[in-house]
Amino acid sequence: MLPEETIAAIAAELAEADRAHGVIPRITARYPEATVEDSYAIQGVWRDSQIAAGRRLVGRKIGLTSKAMQQATGITEPDYGVMFDDTVYESGAEIPVDHFSNVRIEVELAFVLKTPLEGPDCTLEDALAAIDYAVPALEVLNSHIELEGRTIVDTISDNAAYGAMVLGTVHKRPDEIDLRWVPGVLSRNGEIEETGVAAGVLGHPATGVAWLANKFHQHGARLEAGEIILAGSFTRPMWVSRGDEVLCDYGPMGTIACRFV
User: How many domains does the chain have?
Assistant: First the structure.
């Protein structure tokens, strides 16, 4: 493990990068001995500092759950981060580009829990039983660490590159629809850029929720009722810039639109 003072210093560096919308050098380039557990410790110190500053935690994001995303990043296992109340937008929102260091979009489903969920032996069936409803979501990725050469240690430390999420309006219980076959057709300024289906996330999008519950158990925690779980992308990330209009069609689960200003 990295020394506690080093972990605290990196967390402070990331907090300043978040405040200034900047990017810092790779952690693994400076501390090649850093481990995955170090990176979750860094994320935890950063998270606690944000809560102490008045931000409210509303859920968790799971990243790198599909082959498309793992191939796009060169990282081969999932990760997770936290989501705060001031990062949640509704469909139709205008989203300021200046709030981020860089902006990429992913197509996902989010799940709202009706009961707590914990490991160590959580299954897909357990996760589905704990889910109140699914809702379409776009994730805004925002990396505070230079992109080239990142490893999972860098991404976890950087709150799994989470920036914001845009939620749709159609809610479906898990027994109302076969979630595996929810489509996503992602367009930028009227041009289709990415397509996929939710089965691209570990075979079923709620599999990631079970993975997260089991991972949380390793860290002595559980998922709580009311939390939003952003379950992972089933497309590659799409870069966006100021002025871009984004639309994603989820078929039976409606559409999400947003504009970057």
Answer: 1
